Amino acid sequence: MVETSAKKWYVLHTYAGYEDKVKSDLLSRAQSMxxxxxxxxxxxxxxxxxxxxxxxxQEVEEKIFPGYVLVEMVMTDESWFIVxxxxxxxxxxxxxxxxxxPSPLLDDEIARILENQGVEAKKPDIDFEIGETVTITxxxxxxxxxxxxxxxEDKEKIFVSVDMFGRATTAELDYDxxxxxxxxx
Length: 185
Prior knowledge:
Elements: E1 7-14, H1 19-32, E2 39-43, E3 46-53, E4 56-63, E5 68-74, H2 77-84, E6 89-92, H3 107-116, E7 133-136, E8 145-152, E9 157-164, E10 167-174, E11 178-180
């Protein structure tokens, strides 16, 4: 099983009008190629508009980002290959070419988009308490052990006091950058 903190949202560029086809193809490819632990959700953001057609008002679904599809995935060489080689996908937004992997969307960007779609963005369920000892798993303090001094749920931040050069230093971290200290580290 893949660590869920590695899941990020990416933007795919597709041929216009093929967004729904790319969505269904990508989900079936993930299933048939055993990549369900790497490719999770695929979203084509839409909004309902009222149009008048032949004198009658109709509700129609209109793509918010025509030619683009959002995919939640863990970026590995294999998942990247499968996604970019899905029919009608022309590439990832944020990739600089030459085989470089793309940049993911920022958490607040995807949260805003998903909220407008009525889809719940991943809300981390935290199981931490102030005073608890944790291990930092990412960033400049990777591998260090410290105590939680503050939790800001609204910003999804944890503040951890670590010992650096004999002094207490506070690190501001995202929820997915720490794990419970198990004593074996």
